[in-house]
């Protein structure tokens, strides 16, 4: 189908549909007000404002012709007496031009609804200011326009978003956070409306006093449960209850009083719905960012753990190579130097052999020291308990007047080598800090297990950990800072307590992820 013909058919359909809807809403307004001009500024104005904001500008002209045609017909029937009413659609177009200019900057439903409510208020002021010069009822025009706009414009927006959502779902499968209409929303809305209408037959004398409860409680409930959608639907259905009460029981005999009550309950319901939708959006964003942060932190912890395991594997491989390859070569050099000394026939050759032997011995000692730093040999030769006892004895605390108690309460040794090495290095580093800086006379070291968690506690009665020394160690990148990072990388926790000395509590899993996966 050609583009021009399609546009012509769309315009014709819009003209007929808009004319029927406009005339139906005008009849409702005329039934309530008995005034043709006031009826034209009531519900039809809310329909017009919402549609010209939501639709493309190329459809504005058919809507204008349809409304001006209806004005002309009503004027012929003596139902509209002021020709200035023809300016009403033009004033709404001015408002729509400004709103459409910023409409797409606000993608969220509740943001656009707030913008639409602001457009209703500005349009009502403009209508009252311009038309009031001729009709001489400025306050009445404003109240009628704002009531009709608040009641109908949000509902038209709700239907528009629902139809647009249906169309988008047929094109792409996309689950939205905040769907415009839900079955439960319609069920609750019509249930409250049915209760309100039914109550008027049973509580006729008291209906005007109970009407506030029958209208505002559903508004609050629907807005709280469904956000802006619930507020819009409950405002419209609440207006039906109030209008029905006026016709059946004679409540709200004054039309202006009815319009004020309709506007108030609609503003409360829609405003509460907008506020709750905004809070829901903020809560959703907060959950989304918190989930992303947790995922990033978990990925960082996993990466750190892999780095720790990789570091230990590399250290272990280097230590093995140093021990097997360099150790054998050093031993061979020492043997060759001894043979040179024994078979030397002059002093110069003998001195050269001795020098080679000394250099080989220095290389051997340096290699043993490097092996001790890379991989403590005591861990290869002993269990963790005996290795820790050996480590504590190396510090010779008794010779320095320091009492050191060691409590080892593990049922079985941890299976993961990285955990074993970390515990050993942790005790070594902390005892070294205590012996150098704490001036302590008593040290307590305990290693226990509870629910697949290892708990290491090292405490002393020294001077405590000073902030200056702590910051110096953290800034250097070694010591306590390195220990803390390694512990957290292995999924553990670290706590330092300064009270009558220093108490350091470390919790580690008995097995790391790498070990459990293997």
Structural commentary:
Strand 2 and strand 3 (453-460) form a beta hairpin. This protein is an alpha+beta fold and 518 residues long. The protein has helices at 3-33, 36-40, 43-54, 60-76, 88-103, 109-135, 138-171, 183-202, 207-226, 228-249, 255-343, 347-374, 377-381, 384-394, 417-438, 467-476, 480-489, 513-517; strands spanning 403-408, 442-449, 453-460, 493-498, 502-509. Strands 1-2-3-5-4 form a 5-stranded mixed β-sheet, covered by helices on one side. Helix 7 (138-171) crosses helix 10 and helix 14 (384-394) runs parallel beside helix 15. 32% of the residues are buried. It has 18 helices and 5 strands.
Briefly say what this structure is.
With 518 residues, this protein is of the alpha+beta class. It has helices at 3-33, 36-40, 43-54, 60-76, 88-103, 109-135, 138-171, 183-202, 207-226, 228-249, 255-343, 347-374, 377-381, 384-394, 417-438, 467-476, 480-489, 513-517, and strands spanning 403-408, 442-449, 453-460, 493-498, 502-509.
């Amino acid at each position: 189908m050609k583009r021009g013909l399609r546009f012509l058919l769309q315009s014709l359909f819009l003209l007929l549909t808009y004319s029927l809807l406009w005339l139906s809403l005008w009849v409702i307004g005329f039934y309530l007000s008995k005034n043709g001009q006031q009826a034209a500024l009531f519900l039809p104005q809310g329909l017009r404002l919402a549609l010209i904001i939501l639709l493309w500008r190329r459809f504005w002209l058919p809507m204008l012709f349809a409304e001006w045609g209806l004005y002309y017909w009503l004027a012929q029937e003596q139902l509209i007496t002021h020709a200035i009413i023809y300016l009403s659609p033009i004033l709404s177009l001015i408002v729509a031009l400004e709103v459409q200019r910023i409409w797409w900057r606000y993608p969220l439903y509740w943001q656009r609804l707030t913008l639409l409510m602001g457009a209703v208020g500005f349009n009502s002021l403009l209508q009252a200011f311009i038309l009031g010069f001729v009709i001489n009822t400025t306050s009445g025009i404003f109240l009628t326009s704002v009531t009709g706009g608040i009641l109908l414009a949000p509902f038209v927006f709700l239907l528009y978003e629902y139809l647009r959502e249906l169309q988008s779902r047929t094109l792409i499968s996309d689950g939205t956070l905040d769907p415009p209409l839900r079955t439960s929303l319609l069920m609750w809305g019509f249930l409250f409306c049915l209760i309100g209408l039914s109550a008027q037959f049973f509580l006729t004398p008291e209906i005007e006093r109970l009407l506030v409860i029958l209208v505002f409680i559903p508004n609050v409930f629907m807005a709280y449960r469904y956000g802006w959608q619930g507020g819009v639907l409950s405002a419209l259905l609440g207006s039906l209850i109030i209008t029905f009460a006026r016709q059946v029981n004679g409540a709200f005999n004054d039309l202006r009083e009815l319009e004020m009550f309709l506007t108030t309950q609609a503003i409360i319901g829609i405003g509460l719905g907008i506020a709750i939708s905004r809070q829901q959006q903020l809560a959703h964003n907060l959950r989304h960012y918190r989930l992303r942060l947790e995922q990033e932190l978990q990925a960082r912890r996993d990466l750190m753990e892999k780095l720790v395991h990789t570091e230990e594997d590399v250290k272990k491989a280097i230590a093995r190579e140093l021990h097997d390859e360099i150790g054998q070569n050093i031993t061979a050099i020492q043997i060759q130097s001894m043979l040179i000394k024994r078979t030397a026939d002059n002093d110069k050759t003998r001195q050269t052999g001795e020098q080679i032997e000394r250099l080989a011995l220095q290389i051997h000692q340096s290699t043993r020291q490097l092996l001790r730093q890379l991989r403590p040999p005591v861990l290869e030769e002993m269990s963790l308990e005996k290795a820790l006892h050996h480590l504590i004895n190396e510090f010779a605390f008794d010779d320095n007047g320091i009492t050191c108690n060691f409590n080892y309460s593990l049922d079985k040794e941890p299976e993961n080598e990285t955990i074993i090495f970390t515990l050993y290095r942790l005790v070594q580093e902390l005892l070294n800090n205590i012996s150098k800086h704490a001036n302590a006379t008593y040290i307590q070291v305990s290693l226990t297990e509870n629910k697949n968690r290892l708990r290491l506690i090292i405490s002393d009665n020294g001077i405590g950990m000073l902030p200056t020394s702590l910051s110096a160690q953290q800034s250097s990148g070694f010591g306590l800072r390195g220990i803390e990072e390694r512990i957290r990388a292995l999924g553990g926790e670290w706590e330092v307590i300064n009270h009558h000395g220093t108490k350091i509590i470390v919790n580690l899993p008995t097995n790391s992820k790498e070990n459990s996966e293997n």
